[in-house]
Structure prediction request, 159 residues.
Amino acid sequence: MSGVGKSTSLGELARRGFTVVDTDDAGWIHEVDGEPLWREPLVAALLERPRATPLFVQGTVANQGRFYDRFDAVVLLSAPDEVVFDRLARRTDNPFGKTPAERRRVAADIAEVEPLLRQGATHEIVTTRPLGEVVDALVAIARDPGTARPGRRRSRRPR
Prediction:
């Protein structure tokens, strides 16, 4: 979800030497009938590449669930609404979330999309704690994804 700290967390993970991919960056997404979707062959190839460190992939698109069984963990970063809207108002690295229409879209996403993401997630991290703690939690999950939420089928794949 916008404003929860995904990009900030990815930046810190990269600084710590982890492999990160922000699928909001050019090339990873294409629009099909107005819906942004991952370019599935690119994401599949990314997940097949050998790597020395855990891979952290950020994205929120309608077809991401098609890849969930290929991830060791699916982590939802979340924050209370008031925190999200404060971050959107204060951030300077991304203009999204400044206009009333964009803020309405964010509110709708929180109400409609976040519950769906939560259902598919194996873990959730509330990002109101300091960045270092959020990233430490992400690293701990990457190193030992542990057990999934009850009822979620897990498929461990080499990193």
Summary: Strands lie at 19-22, 29-32, 35-38, 55-58, 75-78, 123-126.
